[in-house]
Amino acid sequence: MVNRRLLRTKAFQSLYAFRQAERADYQLAFDQIADSFLPNLDLMIPKEQQMQKLDALRKLAEQRFEELFNLKSTNDDIPAEAKNAARYALESYKSYVKKDKATITDNMVAEVESVYDAYLKMLQLLLEITEIAVWDEQRRLVETDHRTSRLARNQVLMALKNLPMFTTGIIRSNAKWAEDDQNMLRKLFLEAILPDTTFQSYLRITKHTFEEDLALVQYLVKTFVLKHHIIADYFEEKDLNWNENKDVLKSLCVKTFKIEKVEDLVLQPLALNWDDDKHFFVDLFNNVLDNDESYEKLITDQTKNWEGDRLAMTDMLILKLGLAEMIHFTSIPVKVSINEYIELAKNYSTPKSGQFINGLLDVLSQKLQKEGIIRKSGRGLIDNK
């Protein structure tokens, strides 16, 4: 299942993507200014003669833009063309950033929810294997011990196929395997599953108990659906965040078939309470952006011997996430938050970042608790009013 640790990672990745988008938008603003002062080739004046004045106007517009961007006092004694170009560029920049924020927010939620679609597709893979098993037997001209169609009578797989929620989910998410994937799936079956000794032993038995059917499905899931390189390569190609998502998929698939009787078969939820987790996830992301300047000041005030702009961007984002969580999520203990962001730093920042994040968040948490800015309340927590 999706847990808060994964969601913190996704929030960090989304913030990083947003900062990269901001940088691109900033450069686009300068490109827009440059486009405003291109020579007019329809004039009888040579391009070279136009450029001297246009370059001067462009530089004034760029200077004006930077002053407006940094909220500094502006020099009004410049030509109107430069003023207007700078103002339009700033308006465009703000519009681009607003759109990027909305897009990234939508995408980060959709990306987490797409994990569930991949889960359904993995389950559908079992049914695809069943159909290929029937096809394999039908294509044989000479009868052999490979009675692969017996897989189609597996009680657990039949129950999965007839599970209403599963059928609806496959249709909703369009998680069916495409026609183009069939050769890959047949290769998996013929070269890996069919020769497998456990699968061969299963095929030799005419009628199976529920326990035998369940054991085979669990074996297929663990050995082929979750581990075989053909399937891993397929999902890795489709999912840029496969390394984080694969553990969630493993958990969902394994738990699906931890049952004692066929009637127990149900789909696993994406999370125990996805509505609450989604709120935490989106709120954490937005909170960092909404309080960016105040968090940066808190951090730079504690790192006067280490200039803020020299901090790795990843460290700065992790520190801001830590502050957002400690200040605005009152039911999460401070130690839990600090430990989570230490782990995030170990995985996504520099080798020394874990220790740095630990020390700085610890100092900031003590300072902010004394000032009453961090106030924890709830079960097992002290309400420091």
Automatic annotation (TrEMBL):
All copies of the NusB/RsmB/TIM44 domain together span 275-363
SUPFAM superfamilies, A to Z: NusB-like
One term of GO molecular function: RNA binding
**Single GO biological process annotation from the record:** transcription antitermination
What keywords sit in the KW lines? RNA-binding, Transcription, Transcription antitermination, Transcription regulation
Alphabetical list of InterPro entries matching this protein: NusB-like_sf (IPR035926), NusB_fam (IPR011605), NusB_RsmB_TIM44 (IPR006027)
Provide one Gene Ontology cellular component: cytosol
Q: Name one Pfam family in it.
A: NusB
* NCBIfam families per the UniProt record, alphabetical: nusB (TIGR01951)
Q: Which family does it belong to?
A: Belongs to the NusB family.
Q: What is this protein called?
A: N utilization substance protein B
- Gene source species: Arcicella rosea
